[in-house]
Task: structure prediction
Amino acid sequence: MLSRRRCGWSTGCLPVSDVENKPGAGRIEGGIDAIVIGADAEGLTAAAYLGRAGYNTILLEAGVEIGGAVCARELSPGQSYVDGEHLISILDPAVIADLDLYRHGVSYAARCLDTAYFFEDGETLQLGGDLQMAAAAFDDEEAGPAFQKFITEVFEAAAFCRPGFEAAAAPASDIEKAMRAAPRALAARLNFFSLAPAQEVLDAYLPDGPLKTALLSEAGFRSAAAPHEPFSFMTLIRRWSGEIAGLQGACAYPQGGAVAVVTALRRAAQAAKVDIRAATGVASILIEQDHAAGVELEGGGQIRAPIIVAAGAARRVFMEMIGAANIDIGFQRAIMAPTPQLSSGHLHLALKGVARDEKTRGHMNRRLVYAPPPEALRRAFADARAGRVPSDLMIEAVFPDVLDEEAGGDKTQLLSAIAHPLPFDENPGADRRAEIEKNILANIEKFAPDIEDRIKARALRLASDIAKSTGTPAQDYTAPPSIIEQVALARVAGSAGYVGGLYFCGREARIGAGLSCAAGRMAAKAALFEAKRGGRAA
Amino acid sequence: MTAIFDLTVIGADEASFSAAAVAARSGASVAIIRPRKRKNMAATYCDMPNFVWRRLDLHEYGLSLERVSARVTLGPDGATVTTYEGVRETKALLAQNDKADHLLWADFVDEMKALEAGRKLRDAATMAPKNGAAGFSLFSGGVRDCAALGQATGSCAAALNDYLGDDALKTHIAAHALGPTGLGGGEPGSALALSEFFDDHAWRVRPDEDGPSLLSTLETACKDSGVEFFTKDLTEIARDGARHVVVSLADGEKIKTRYVLFASPGAAQKAGMRASVCPLAGHGAATAVLRIALKRPMPPAAQNDKAVFQVLDGVGDLQVAREAALDGRLPENLPVEFEYAANGDVLVRTAYCPAAFRDDDGWREWTGQDRQATARRMIDQLARRIPEFSANVRKTKIEVIGAISPDRPPIVAGSGFADNENVIVQPNRHNAVAAAVRLVDRVLAGE
Result:
């Protein structure tokens, strides 16, 4: 191993023989203000912020692809799909404004996507993309006023909570002050919403019926917290705290898919003169006197910088790149807590011809959701946790080529769907994959009958597949735990193990499922704040 | 309409009576509403902390208490795990039984007690705050608070796996910590039960065999403190202006009160009310209490008639049982708790029963047959651990608390927790008496 003198106080250095045989192994690169490790959306955001502030920033990505899990892949010749995410719902509006993302190419093919809910009994329910207007116009004598009250109160709470969902690095006293100042009725509701199961909250507001079933599914979607379990209503609060183009709680389909947002972030970073280096893995983070001092590259050589922002998974960043010996034991325990053994699955289908069924044709320009009955949903979570593939799954699907002309292939139609909850498998076998695909298709049939006959090509993307493409452990793509747990973990992870000059915006610092970029923004802002206060970067 | 009370306590258990008596002694006007039909099914053991004992001068009533001797879990194949109130005593026993976890036991107990975030979370779930979103402001704590919050909102099984290695010991702790709440080991928030379980006040006591019962003593203490009793069934609780609620009773009488307290979710469920929003409330399940009179005396399990026993095979069985109960089925491998009453009867309890049953036609209420089947299964579970137990059962009496009728409207008018902030429901707690008394102190102090 390298001596301590040669590699500082870092751990995890490469063996001498490996290092010395590589070109540039002994090189130390200086003159850099900030290094960002990991070029996913959060890493790109952090790098762009630092670059725009005038910091000489390097963005290092171990793989060859920029964008992390969100990228375009080929499904069949001439037909591609966007992996990772197919809609935008919680993208941080501050990032769009601060980084000028509209100028860098973000545009929405569908800014305010309506949702069509499908139910087991064949019924459908359509809700406008602007939920406040949809509630006001809801045509039901009993459920209408109740829905309006529900949306008003929940949207107020969601807007109030918004800073809490990006507060990984914000001073605790600010949040405390805001929370204490909440009006009494809102405070009581916040308590109720943050602790109670979604089922309980919906029971308190809405009569039984399709609307309640639809919202119950939304509350459980892409979360490991089942809607009948404590803290699960926060999943909905988190989703509705998002704002797309000024519209709270809306969903949008960007022109070119979610990958267009990542491309815009890359352009913003490049415009800010960030040096993006793909295929440059980091072996370890150098720590000197409890302060980050730079990184040691996998190919040998060091880059020295007083600010390091890490966007990978916390286990990899803190346990492998820094080493347990340099990390507080309480912090280690928090980041090493087991992840929920649940996941979501993505299925992309290239379909021959056009849909003939009226049910499908009538809703193809919407977000389509299959909402199983509450009992089936509860059993689905129990099955998935026990390692079984549930027969009933929540499905969220879009027809990208209907929303965005550029997404369509020649004489084919594209359908992108996310199914939840699925059991988490590190290495699913062929039988398991076939079973998952069969069950997802069976549930898609609820809104697109006879779809199986039209399938020309298909791509099932499970957590393990996405992990393989990004070169990360499959554990990084399990479903996130309850929002309360995520907020708690995000605040712990945001402290970056008390290592000075190190900022973290990886999976553990993110709150809610979906493309957000808030963690990257907060990590960069914290770094800039510290530097201005007289940190080593100043 | 009778006089306006500061506090109306609904329930007829130790926690309800203690809270009412303490409030009355503090100068509040207090009413207790207890149901007309009562069975003597209460557990013989409950918690009774020193500070409540002193505040109510219980020694003046000729009451003397003895502490539960041990917590015992009867595992499969005759395996028994025992823990004591004293940390050192338990540690020594674990060491004697070659359990490697004895090295960690003291630290584990300390860390579980120190899950302060858990206490805040429970308090926030129990009553609406007066000065801001106390529950939600947990997020504003420091990094260490947040780490504890993450742990407390996680699952009991994960917390146990984090500290301990021995499966039998983990099963024992999960059984005793979660048994009274009816939660599954993998459920979010079930880790909260651990901090409760190791609370200093959670160790249970019961009166001496020759002395008066704790419940009757507390009832006398209430009457001596000026608490007014209403032995009537409850029909409705509704808001009356911004500050008061009106409690309607079966004969049409109405009581106006500032606060209503259900000291245990059992009391709330008996009144047909939705339980607290705290994860420990054990939503969607009912509790069955079975009193078994034996034909002839038999030696107590583990030669200890002063212990509280659990029957459980593994931590995972709790989750399976919880899911069955939520699904409207009686769990196959029903986790049960039991203790020996002073007269030799066996009191068996399980919080893993469904609140209503579900069959091909949908949800339906509990029937007499369901009660019989539940009693049978509880006896079978004991018989799996105690030889010849089934053959020795002379008479049984079962009570089911928390069974709901699928069509019955909730007893509280209005919708949601926020609309009923004057109605306070405690979740299942290991230290129900201590918590109820502290809660009443806070409520009356206007916090």
In short: Chain B has three domains: 4-61+205-277+408-444, 89-202, 282-401. Chain B touches chain A through 49 residues (CB under 8 Å). The first strand of chain B starts at residue 4 and ends at 10.
